[in-house]
Structure formats: structure tokens, C-alpha cells
């Protein structure tokens, strides 16, 4: 019981700390007149590859950040709680790389992309399929609940999305989360398991 509470507290502190960092960075960006916006991803520029990770922690205004805060907090907490901190961090890194590289490869020329929405879509995809991959009834229920609450965000991953929304970040983040659920599963795939040897007579 005490161990469970400690895990809950650790996951909550982790996500609150992450969100606090995002708000701090946006505050610095506003105070400096948008100096951090240069760390957004501008597509197909080789020098911009170093911004793939930093871009996931930056936003274009407090409104942009506020829209991402609650889903990041909720989905991140659930993913960390069910996966463990180490696996969760690996999942997030894979999502960030998939989302950022997808933006770098496919975003419109002259665009500048930043924000945690790619991570949000990735965590959504991860939680949605993880229970089926792990064959865990509880995680299946969590995935179905996440799908019911946040399923409408999938529209944001379609290329028809207009305006300043980066459907590329959303789509590749989603694919990154699903990939992470497969590659970082705790239960080995039956086809990959070593066949049992017959007993020796």
C-alpha cells in the first residue's frame, strides 16, 4: 500500500514538474520577446535537427501552452503510473523523436513548429493500444477510457487540418506512441519467445 502511494506521488511530482518547466520556459520566452522560438523546428534544414527535442518543450504563447497542459498532465500521469518511470521516459523520448523528425521531413516550407501536442498525441496512442499489446485488462479499460475522453483529438492528426495546427507533429507523435507500445512492451511477443524443449528421456 505504501509502495503504491509512493509510486503515485512520484508520477504526480514528475508530471507537475514537467508542466512547471513548460510554463517557466514560456515565461522566459515572453520576457525575452520570443527568443526561444528559434528552437522550433524549421523543416529540412540540417541545422534544425538539433531542435527536434527542445521544440517539444516550447510553445508559441500561453494560450498554446494552456491548451496542452491538462491533457499532457493527465495522459503523462497515466502512462508513467502504468509503465514505470524508466519505461515512461523511453516512451516519451521515442515519441518526441518520431514527432519532431516527422515535422522536419514533411512540414510546410518556411514553417516553425514547437509544442507538446506531438507528445500528447503519442501518449494518447500509447495508452490506447498498450493494454491490448500487454494483454492487461486494466490497461485495456484505461485505453478505452482515454479513447472515450480524448478520441476527438484524432481529427488533429489528419492532413486536412487547417490553420497553424501542425498535423504532422500530431500524426507522427501518434505513430511514435503506438510504436513505443510495441517496442517497449513488458510481455514478450509469443512469436519471439524461445520454444520449449521436449524433456530428455
From TrEMBL:
Q: Where in the cell is it found?
A: Membrane
Range of residues in the leader sequence = none
Q: Kind of enzyme, top EC level?
A: hydrolase
Gene3D superfamilies according to UniProt: Rhomboid-like
Q: What is its main location?
A: membrane
Topology relative to the membrane: Multi-pass membrane protein
Membrane-crossing residue ranges in chain numbering: 56-81, 88-107, 113-133, 140-158, 164-184
Q: What is its EC number?
A: 3.4.21.-
Biological processes annotated in GO = proteolysis
Pfam families the record matches: Rhomboid
Question: Where does the source fall among the domains of life?
Answer: Bacteria
Q: Give yes or no: UniProt keyword Lipoprotein.
A: no
Residue span, Peptidase S54 rhomboid domain: 48-185
Q: Which UniProt keywords apply?
A: Hydrolase, Membrane, Protease, Transmembrane, Transmembrane helix
A GO molecular-function annotation: peptidase activity
Protein name per the record: Rhomboid family intramembrane serine protease
> Which source organism?
Streptomyces bugieae
Q: Highest lineage ranks of the organism? A: Bacteria, Bacillati, Actinomycetota, Actinomycetes, Kitasatosporales
Amino acid at each position: 500500500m505504501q509502495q503504491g502511494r509512493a509510486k503515485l506521488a512520484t508520477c504526480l511530482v514528475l508530471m507537475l514538474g514537467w508542466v512547471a518547466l513548460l510554463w517557466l520556459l514560456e515565461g522566459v520566452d515572453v520576457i525575452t520577446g520570443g527568443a526561444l522560438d528559434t528552437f522550433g523546428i524549421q523543416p529540412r534544414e540540417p541545422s534544425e535537427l538539433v531542435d527536434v527535442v527542445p521544440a517539444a518543450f516550447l510553445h508559441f504563447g500561453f494560450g498554446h501552452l494552456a491548451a496542452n497542459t491538462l491533457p499532457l498532465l493527465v495522459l503523462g500521469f497515466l502512462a508513467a503510473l502504468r509503465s514505470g518511470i524508466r519505461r515512461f521516459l523511453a516512451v516519451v523520448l521515442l515519441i518526441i523523436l518520431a514527432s519532431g523528425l516527422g515535422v522536419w521531413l514533411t512540414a510546410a516550407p518556411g514553417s516553425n513548429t514547437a509544442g507538446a501536442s506531438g507528445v500528447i498525441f503519442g501518449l494518447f496512442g500509447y495508452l490506447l493500444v498498450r493494454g491490448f499489446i500487454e494483454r492487461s485488462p486494466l490497461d485495456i479499460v484505461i485505453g478505452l477510457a482515454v479513447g472515450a475522453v480524448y478520441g476527438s483529438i484524432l481529427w488533429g492528426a489528419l492532413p486536412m487540418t487547417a490553420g497553424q495546427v501542425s498535423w504532422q507533429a500530431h500524426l507522427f507523435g501518434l505513430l511514435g506512441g503506438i510504436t513505443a507500445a510495441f517496442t517497449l512492451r513488458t510481455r514478450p511477443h509469443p512469436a519471439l519467445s524461445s520454444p520449449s524443449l521436449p524433456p530428455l528421456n
